[in-house]
Fold this protein.
Amino acid sequence: MLLRCAARWVEFETVRRHVDAFAAQSGISREDCHRLLVVTEELFVNTVRHGYAGECDRPIVVVLTADADTFALRFEDEAPAFDPLVRAPVDGLEAGAEARPLGGLGIHLTLEMTRGARYRREAERNVIELVFARST
């Protein structure tokens, strides 16, 4: 399933409905749908806030696919090149929240919820592909 939308906060409701429809159509469990939605929201928010530096009419593309054992998210934007997978692992996770700087956990948590991730720059677009294992 493919969805194209503008990088506007109001569009996230459309993205949410897209994820829900995909989950229903693909027989994905509610738990898996929630994981997919959390990851999609993280990518959407980071694209609007950091990639595009605020709301705009530039595109966000969400492609969802599934097979018997896995499902996948392909997320694209036209923001400046940024590979979130090359960031150093989060240091000091064992330290309390009050000892850590604000932010920086979103990509770490996203990767924890997936089976695999890949980033590439393709035709002036950031493309991140994430594969999820279906829960049993």
About this structure: The chain has one domain: 2-133.
